[in-house]
Amino acid sequence: MLVSSLSSLLAGRIAERFSAAAPELTFDPQVRRSAHADFQADGVLAAGRALGRNPRELAVAVAAGLAGEPVLAASSVAGPGFINLTFTDRALLTQAAARLADDRLGVPLSDTGRVTVIDYSQPNIAKEMHVGHLRSTIIGDALARVLGHLGGTVVRQNHIGDWGTQFGMLIEYLFGDAVGDEPAGISRLSALYRAARARFEADPAFVERSRRRVVALQAGDPETVTAWRDIVAESTRYFTDVYDRLGVLLEPGDVAGESFYNPMLAGVAEDLLALGVATVSDGAVCVFFDDVRGPDGDPVPLIVRKSDGGYGYAATDLAAVRYRVTDLHADRVLYVVDARQALHFRMVFETARRAGWVPDGVAVEHVRFGLMLGPGGRPFKTRYGGNALFTDLIDEAVAGARKVIDTKNPEVDAGVLAERARQVGIGALKYADLATSRTRDYVYDPARMLSLTGNTSVYLQYAHVRARSILRKAGADGAIDTGLPLEAAERLLILDLDGFADAVEEVGQTLEPHRLCGYLFRLAQSFTAFFERCPVLTAPAPVRENRLALCLLTARTLRAGLELLGIESPDRL
Ligand code: ARG
Predict the structure, then answer these.
(1) CA distance 228 to 240
(2) CATH 3.30.1360.70 residue spans of the chain
(3) How much is the average pLDDT of 179-195?
(4) I need a surface site. Which of 131, 258, 280, 285 has the fewest CB within 10 A?
(5) Which of 127, 259, 341 to mutate to test the pocket of ligand 1 (most atoms within 8 A of CB)?
(6) Where does the DALR anticodon binding domain start and stop, copy by copy (predicted)?
(7) ipTM > 0.90 (yes/no)
């Protein structure tokens, strides 16, 4: 049975009491944790203002009504009308026992029945992945995990850049200019790409040949299509390797790249014209918006079809959104893409709405994120700009983690060390990204992300390890005796443990993984305080049992939370 969190239980009780005291108003109790009691409810203040009544008197009436609740040890009113509420020790222990008995740790299946398409990762063929793709991959994957865990149906879509005029140039170069003995792989491809581009910029004859090659590719010329396929396959192998190393959910089957939508583009343009959503302007098929204008005040259109008949990024995204709603039955489509593409998505979504391709009940959202900046706060270029940008970052994180673990515990053998270094290093890379507010830019800082203190995954992983180690030494899990009194540090730990479901739901609603990071960090801090103040293994029998149970619940909650962020939690480090 699903037991709701203590804060939502309180919110429900307060709302009942409030409607008894002031039935004319719908009311948000605003329950939050407090330093003066377990929880504080502030909602009466705003309600008093709205009703033109003295908030303190309202608060006193609500608090008096709550006084009879058997789960509450105290209810009082402070200041202008804050209600302070404290649970009995028994209520807290009963709640902890309920969480322990539940595999889902209280997390409801609140997204059941909803189909969410998440467009994330989206690297480009024949180019290395860059830090923007890293952010998209990490954030998108965490959201896919959270929404899936909340019971939603999640359809992952990797919108790779695998189509476009650059392939004409690349294939032409490959046939004519490339010497054949470089090792296959992404570094060869991206070197080829750079060489092809240089040639393209210097040699008009090559430009003309490349253009003819694009036409051949679009016309399905077998030799050209085979070359294109090989390039896509080579890049995809590299992406798959990266995904495997990162431990993300994306699979080859999740790829629906730009080429996938190519056959739909002509229909998109025709339909938009027929619907009157698009118009022809200077030979191009365009959609205009009142509020999108250039520096000169002229409207800037979304170009669906260029005057030369070619289709670009916008047409592909229009086809994609229609496909996602119509064929994938999305109730919600999320685009995890950096903030600089905000205008593009605004225009695409608005066009699709006008065309009726995204009906009212369907949400489309640009889940934007800020830049990941290099050391020193400058855009990523210098040191990581070369060949193996992505893999450099991963290698550096894993090597750093190896050092941290090795210093703490030099005894482990090489194979185990390598595995743990991977878990800690990848975790640190992901966590540093997820823990900052999504829309903000942040500076990549390998030393800080691997710090043993502060809001890092390493700190969380060590808290988890400490809890597991106590349980191992005890040899038993501990069953809860709800009749025992609690120490202050135990109360705080239980209150934090109980907040897990609310934190996960909050990420589902806001699409902001840093909220779960913040929650897990507070939990690990409370566990550390508990661990310092409340001996577990040496405590007398019934207390020891209860404390072991709290260790187990903490370990399970940390592991479940980290897993939702795509981060592993080893039992030992
Ligand atoms: N491949 C694009 C890039 O690297 C991102 C694609 C984002 N997704 C989309 N549906 N447009 O910038």
Answers:
(1) 18
(2) 6-87
(3) 74
(4) 280
(5) 341
(6) 460-573
(7) yes
